[in-house]
Amino acid sequence: MTTVALAATLGLGLAACGGAGGAQESVTWRLAETHPGDYPTTKADEWFAEELKKRSDGRITVDVYPDAQLGEERDVLEQMQMGSVELNRTNANLVGEFVPSWKAFGVPYAFDSEEHFWNYLQGDGGKAKLEELSEMGAEGLAYYDSGARSLYTTGKPVEKPEDLAGRNIRVQPGSITAEVVEKLGGSATTMDFGEVYSSLETGVIDGAENNLPSYVSTRHYEVAQNLTLNEHQRVPEVLMIAQSAMDQLSEEDQKLVREVARESTEVQRELWRQEVADSRKTLEDAGVTITEVDDKQAFKDAVSDLQERYAGQYGDFMDAVEAAKKQ
Ligand code: BDP
């Protein structure tokens, strides 16, 4: 944990003193967010906070801490587990370290399209998955969009899996993406999000993978100027709350939190669509080499034996994903 994160944790500990169970008259909570203030997830967090304050007549205050002020996502998840951060917006891939069944979100090419992805998330499968967060003492409130993750590299562009040979690609902690990258032919390094820019710059890694808005907002495109739209994963963002925080509320206020969070999904998805288009333009204007991968078969074939293993390991997920195709 960083010093900032530690100080923040201690600060919260003091602020929370005096709340010993049962419904509180009013609460002030912190929401951890790794992205900057103008990123779609952060704007949705803010919308959630404002709306909740309004509709609870000021009983529930949520202060959003963007820019990883409360620590890198992995640190924040640890704090969530201890109940020392009440709310967190994180990427589903990171959750796998804490709730192993969530690693399923990293299964490559699980979803055929954005529509398929959202059919799954908003159907029974997606709802059941949110409930699994109770294993880490949290409740899943809502999913946010995160588009598709693609590779980007320094050096020469990646056009086919073979081009990854000998290249070191950063992956998110807690995820199965390391296995995916290695099957594709590269080597994988697990690293916190905040370290990626300097590691690309100094050549510690040769690339990373993410969606367009993150590639742009982090300015990774300045130091890794080749983007390959192979779209190996669609991994949702999730807004979660510590169970110990939820327990402080009356039943009515708990319902309100869930309702406002659900509504914030629509707000975020709209912001997301716009951001993807804007990011694409930023990248084109900056002269980034964008390699379209119209036929993803070579990438899919390279990871096909992983699919068989995952179908056994994450059977329920794969069945629900399959069922969401037919809706
Ligand atoms: C972004 C997610 C952020 C991740 C980051 C990463 O929004 O929460 O953890 O990727 O790669 O797309 O670490």
Give a description of the structure.
The structure is a single chain. This protein folds into two domains: 24-146 and 236-278, Bacterial extracellular solute-binding protein, family 7 (D-Maltodextrin-Binding Protein, domain 2), CATH 3.40.190; 148-235 and 288-324, D-Maltodextrin-Binding Protein, domain 2 (3-Layer(aba) Sandwich). 46% of the residues lie in helices and 18% in strands. The termini are far apart. Strand 1 (27-32), helix 2 (40-55) and strand 2 (60-65) form a beta-alpha-beta unit. It has 327 residues and is α/β, with parallel strands linked by helices. Bound molecules: beta-D-glucopyranuronic acid. Beta-D-glucopyranuronic acid is lined by residues 34, 73, 90-91, 94, 146, 172, 193, 210-211, 214, 237. One of its GO terms (biological process) is transmembrane transport. This is Tripartite ATP-independent transporter DctP family solute receptor. Keywords: Receptor, Signal. Pfam families: DctP.
